[in-house]
Amino acid sequence: MTATTPDMQAAGDRLARRNAFVLALATALAGANTTVMFATGAIVGAELAPVRSLATLPISIFVVGLATASLPVGMLIQRVGRRAAYQIATIAGVLTGLFGYLGVTLSSFPIFCVATFCAGFYASAAQSYRFAAADTASDAFRPKAISWVMTGGILAGVVGPQLVVWTKDALPPILFAGTYIGQAVIALMAGVILSFIDIPKPKPVVAGSHRPVSAYFRDRAFLTAVTCGAATYMLMNFVMTAAPLAMIGCNHSVADAAYGIQWHVIAMYGPSFFTGSFIARFGAPRVVAAGLALTALSAAVALTGITVMHFYAALVLLGLGWNFGYIGASAMVAATAEPQERTRVQSINDFCVFGVMAIGSFSSGQVVTSYGWDMVNIVVFPIVALAAGALLLRQLTSSRGQAA
């Protein structure tokens, strides 16, 4: 194996910075696509679903799309490289907008669910953007590369909700018809931006060059990272999916719900400017622990009232918790993989995270419609405790191993 020289590391970091900038812009557009779906999906679902308890089913199907695409996207990246794979995935983003438009204009719940599945497929590819910039980065720069890409979500948090507010009545009398056309246009723009990334195509996988899948799950560091990432993402999705529906149920407006999602998404990605530095200074496990604590605080705030400001404060804290928890867990996952395993390990991690997330998303609609907004937030506490326990156990085990 050829040793990596300081000059090679510096060149790799320069390329990683360039790619991080391009991928941050792509994240902004892909994230806006997702934000639109989260801001409108449950509201449209409540209008089109045969029974109200299925109002959040479109968002749940979005999550199924996320989980379904995670492994195929990884294989596509391995075969054709990240740039081509990501551009192919933008087709799903365009289809999201087109099927969404057809769903609301034809009042078809199944067609709208197809739109949300396509949105999930597109978002699955976008989720791996955070790892793409890290491909050429040194170990020291890798957490920063991941967090820099995530800063694109700040713009997504503005563009997505504003697209909803500006276009929801653009094609009267059908609510959100213009919004979904806008989604398709944004996906096309993302495809153009992605043509500027420069990431070496992964080397062909040589038989026996990576561990079997079972070996990853015997690796305590990997298992802990997946557990924390899955818990953080599942809770964020579980609460965020229910929030717009709960706000409408509390007599707040569609615009109020859209702005609530806007502030939530900004909080999700805003800290990314310095999350990487926090990880480098304090370590990923401590940053993940802070994220779990913020998620629990979000639920506590939500239980104190149902005014617009209560919803906004809870959603902002939820977004902050997701940022620290998920980026920290992503850095932990990246640290467990050998260079030749990265694409495979990332795909397995995303499949696990989104699979667990799908369970939470499916249950979200049932919980909020059957038991109310308070119960949605009460569910947060035991899951946070489970993830925190796994993290603490891993840290104690590592300390004992180092002491020995």
Structure write-up:
Keywords: Membrane, Transmembrane, Transmembrane helix. InterPro entries: MFS, MFS_dom, MFS_trans_sf. It is a single chain. This protein is mainly α and 404 residues long. The chain has one domain (10-199, 212-403): Up-down Bundle (Growth Hormone, Chain: A), CATH 1.20.1250. The protein is built from 17 helices and no strands. It has helices spanning 6-48, 57-80, 82-105, 109-127, 129-132, 142-150, 152-167, 177-193, 213-218, 220-249, 254-269, 272-282, 284-302, 308-336, 342-370, 373-378, 380-403. Helix 6 runs antiparallel to helix 12. The chain is globular, with a radius of gyration of 20 Å.
In short:
The longest helix is centred in the first third of the chain and has 43 residues, at 6-48. Helix content is 81%, strand content 0%. The chain has helices at 6-48, 57-80, 82-105, 109-127, 129-132, 142-150, 152-167, 177-193, 213-218, 220-249, 254-269, 272-282, 284-302, 308-336, 342-370, 373-378, 380-403.
